[in-house]
Amino acid sequence: MARYGQYCPITRSLELLGDRWTLLIVRDLLVGAERFNELARGLPRLSRGLLSKRLDHLVRAGLVEHHDGRYRVTQAGEELRPLVFGLAEWGARWAFGEPRPDELDATVLMWWIRGGIDAKAFGEPRRVVLQFRFVEGRRRLYWLVVTPTDVSLCFTDPGFDVDVTVDVGLDVLYQVWVGRIGYGEAVRDRLLVVTGERSLVRALPRALQFSPVAPYVRRAAAVD
Q1: 130-156 per-residue burial string, b: 16 or more CB within 10 A, e: under 16
Q2: CATH of domain 9-79
Q3: 35, 118, 132, 134: which could join 142 in a potential S-S bond, CB 3.0 to 4.6 Å?
Q4: What is the reported pTM?
């Protein structure tokens, strides 16, 4: 932990939260990740060893609790929510733009989308299989198998009939997910092509709950 040698609540806060990756771990805990592997999958460039070190630091600092294999924020950690999403609001207004190539990771995006699926939007309880086909990249095919109680991300054909197929560029889907491009706008402009069972195609934008930062990105765009 870096020490700044200044008696100030800002420096004390930075001593707890200023290390690389720490606030992103807090971000993921605040939006629902609980298990070590969930955090690791959402932050693939963070080594598992450093993730473990950062989590231990947050537990010792009283920001996170660890019981029965689950990590959860404490009251102190929960009170970081306005700070974390305040950064989202500021960043959407002043530090955001088109995605850079090094920011595009299809597996990370699909993992985020998996965590934001509302199965109830598809109607009566059933299994719904979504296939995503990216127009570029090393891995171009992903499947989401949606049931009333679980959403599975598959990297190989799960063996079920596909109900909805999404054809899209990775950069476009990222921007739709974070709210920089509207879903309807992307469909209208043929940047996002959705085919399959008609009722499920109509339900897809309701099932995709989008990124927790999407409201801030949309609001920043409206201000501009």
Answers
A1: bbbebeeeeeeebbbbbeeeebebbee
A2: 1.10.10.10
A3: 132
A4: 0.91
Six-digit token pair at 159? Answer: 């063996």
pLDDT digits 0-9 by tens, 105-152: 999 999 999 999 999 999 988 899 999 999 886 778 999 999 999 999
Tokens 């979504």 sit on residue: 130
Two tokens, residue 155: 């990297």
3-state helix vs strand vs coil in the chain, percent to 5: 50, 15, 35
Dist. CA 188–CA 186, nearest whole Å: 5
**What distances in angstroms separate CA 211 from CA 122, 124, 175, one per listed residue?**
19, 25, 10
Task: Please name the residue ranges forming H helices in the chain.
Answer: 9-17, 22-30, 36-42, 48-60, 75-78, 81-94, 106-115, 170-177, 183-188, 198-207, 214-223
Nearest to 122 by CA among 209, 200, 201: 200
Q: How many CB atoms lie within 10 A of CB 171?
A: 19
| Domain residue ranges in the chain | 9-79, 101-223
Distances (CA, A) of 64 to 27, 29, 31, 69, 207: 12, 9, 14, 12, 30
Q: What is the pLDDT of residues 4-62, one digit of tens each?
A: 889 999 999 999 999 999 999 999 999 999 999 999 999 999 999 999 999 999 999 99
Is 219:92 a contact under the CB 8 Å cutoff?
Answer: yes
Distance separating alpha carbons of residues 157 and 72, to the nearest angstrom? 34
Fold match, 9-79 / 101-223? no
